Amino acid sequence: MSEIVVKKSEPHSIQFEFEKSALLIIDMQNDFLLPGGFGERLGNSLANIQSCIEPIQAILQSYRRLNGMVIHTKEGHSPDLSDCNQSKLERSRLQGAEIGSEGPLGRLLIAGEYGNEIIDKLKPIESEWVIQKPGKGAFYNTNLKETLRDNNITHLIVTGVTTHVCVHSTVREANDRGFNCLIITDGTAAFDLQDHHSALHMITQQGGIFGWTTSAKQLIQAMP
Ligand code: TIU
User: Fold this and answer.
1) 33-54: per-residue pLDDT in tens?
2) What is the pLDDT confidence band of residue 1, given thresholds at 50, 70 and 90?
3) Most buried by CB count within 10 Å: which residue of 13, 18, 147, 220?
């Protein structure tokens, strides 16, 4: 077992066994990162969202080198929208980004469309898990919990977009299911910088009420 100790993490240092950790890469799909996708159609600027790509690439490289567990998630719905609840659909319509409507990257937030694919720079390789999720949290209506338990995972290294929406929902769900979360400050991003920083603050306040945060560099330096 390889013990990892990240000393420079908030609110205090974190220690875990590498073999019991998984790198979780949340929703790094074209729909959120590229012009014309769901994120931009919701009214967001893409100026800040791509900053997390390089830090995630660096951590992914380390996990691949060490044969660690890597899980990619994609937020998306089946083409008939049977797994999209009416409230989510209605709010997307009111915002001018109706889920399932045609866009330059294909139908918005629909499985199998170009917008739903993971960005080229983080393309999953065959040994990695890819989980399609209909909700914001990655545990809702997926087999993520069973997959983690089957692989004896206790710690999640959490990256992806957006910090305050799908990353936060997933971290909260993970907490209630007994998983420890280390969120990567520069390996996550939101459209709005204030949302990003507020979401990270919420993780570490009250002695780490939802977990820990650190940078990609600090994590990589601590890896074997
Ligand atoms: N809108 C927004 O910030 N995020 C989402 O809708 N989904 C994810 O965060 N993946």
Assistant:
1) 999 999 999 999 999 999 999 9
2) confident
3) 18
Please state the length of the chain. Answer: 224
- How far apart CA 21 and CA 151 sit, in angstroms, is 9
pLDDT digits (tens, 9 = 90+) for 125-158: 999 999 999 999 999 999 999 999 999 999 999 9
Active site residue 84: no
Task: Write down the ipTM of this complex.
Answer: 0.98
Task: Establish whether residue 27 lines the binding site of ligand 1, counting it when its CB lies within 6 angstroms of any ligand atom.
Answer: yes
SS3 content of the chain, % helix, strand, coil (to 5): 40, 25, 35
Q: Which residues of 132-164 are buried (b: 16+ CB within 10 A; e: fewer)?
A: bbbbbbbbeebebbeebeeeebebbbbbbbbbb
46 lines ligand 1 (CB under 6 A): no
Does any ligand 1 atom lie closer than 6 A to the CB of residue 166?
A: yes
27 is catalytic: yes
Ligand 1 atom nearest to CA at 75: 10
